[in-house]
């Protein structure tokens, strides 16, 4: 290994170890004619450079070097290109970066950093546009760069959160959709079973009639638009308009299910099927309410938004 490569490796190890431990102690590595360009913000002089590094919006940082390339330059200097990843504070998602140093002899058998260029490397699907600044606009540019630095971190975190929450959202949306579609099935099932059990010579006839009535109630619950079409009374309209939330729909389905479950006392009939489906629909509406899903009309009977058409 050539001497310049050994120097480059030793320098890189020392620099990042010191940066991660206490970056305020990096001043001896720079001189008054040194320059740092950190995400397009240029800073000159050892003091301003260290001030810039210590003002970055994180308390803890850990660098991990992936690649290191070095070349000698005329006059005894060395150019070093580093790529790697870093973690700041409590972040679990590493950020890729590249950094280029030009070292020059300090006249005492060692080197100092003459040029230092740092750049975060973002995936192309999350492009970050940094503002170009001039040397006479450093202060404004530094503030802008710090804002962009934080924005990039927040954007990546938000992306991960949305990906993780996507499946949960789809699950909640599925609960809302199922409640509406099972409600539609309840209309036909309650109507059919109500008629089928009308021929019992017992109190089952009463529960059959209530099952039949339930089918008509469900029609108005699932298709509120019918209250504008059918000649219903204002009292009935006022009653039905109470069921404009998932929780209220869960309540009315539960009440209708309870009535059919009670019919078992008079005898086991096919009305149990209505009781089961009404109970399931009640549970689905309750789940949709817990998930915070707003009610929309059934796609099968009118599509979304019919509930909002009631005056």
Class per helix and strand makeup: alpha+beta
| Strand count | 6
Estimate the global geometry from the Cα principal axes.
Answer: rod-shaped
Total tally of structural domains = 2
Q: What does this protein look like?
A:
The chain has about 300 residues and is of the alpha+beta class. The chain folds into two domains: about 5-120, Nuclear Transport Factor 2, Chain: A; about 170-310, no CATH class. Helix content is about 50%, strand content about 20%. The chain has a six-stranded mixed β-sheet. A hairpin with a 2-residue loop joins strand 1 (about 30-40) and strand 2 (about 40-45). It is rod-shaped, with a radius of gyration of 35 Å. The N and C termini lie far apart (about 85 Å). Mean pLDDT is about 80; it is low at about 125-145, about 165-170 and about 295-310.
Structural descriptors:
single chain; 311 residues; alpha+beta; Nuclear Transport Factor 2, Chain: A; 2 domains; 6-stranded mixed β-sheet; 8 helices
